[in-house]
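Teaching note: in complex prediction, the entire set of molecules is handled at once rather than each chain in isolation. The prompt given to students was simply: 'Predict the structure of this complex.' The entities are:
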Amino acid sequence: MAAVELLHERILDCTLCQDAGYIERAAPVVAGRAGNRMMLIGQAPGISELAIRRPFAGRAGKELFRWLASIGIEESDFRDKVYMTAVTKCFPGKAPGGKGDRRPSPAEIALCRPYLDAQLALIDPRSILLVGSLAIERCFPRVPLTELIGQRVEWRGKTAVPLPHPSGASRWLNVPHHRELLRAALRYVREEWDSVVETDAAIIREPIVIV
Ligand code: SF4
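The expected output is the structure of the full assembly:
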């Protein structure tokens, strides 16, 4: 079995956060394959993703794919060609007060970190889309979002494009200037798509794992 599939099996079997009492039920979401040259890193699956174990399957996903459609990238094409993962792989539960999902704690992030490190090492993407502040902080701690979103930045020899979280719970996009930054970021996503995804003839075709 290929190394990426073995890693996916390890992730899918993981119950560390449930065992530690951080989450009610471990139900990791994994989607992608060796050969994907672009990786998306989000925060964590939501309740919709928990139900069907598919990343960005709910309201935030609708918005994300609306953004991508605005630059000519179809959802099915994106899901086929992009390795989609998250800082933590399981639904963290609702936020206290019920508005949006709970942000995974530093302890949960630390427990899940070896999986994301292994995904990065094995997939070795050329481009990374960092969706939301938690994913952005994973690569660029302590840098304000406004200094990163709208830029294309180098991270460990890879190209990273930071994006705001498409969740309706985020108010960041209510500021008109921030919407300009989003448009600039999406232009970079399109350029990365053209140069990394569409022109890469070396894509290795392996089955997609969506469990
Ligand atoms: S979030 Fe990560 S570390 Fe925690 S149970 Fe899920 S897969 Fe395991």
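Point out the following to students. The domain at 3-202 is CATH 3.40.470.10 (Uracil-DNA Glycosylase, subunit E). The pocket of iron/sulfur cluster is lined by residues 11, 14-18, 26, 28, 88-90, 108, 111-112, 115 (CB under 6 Å).
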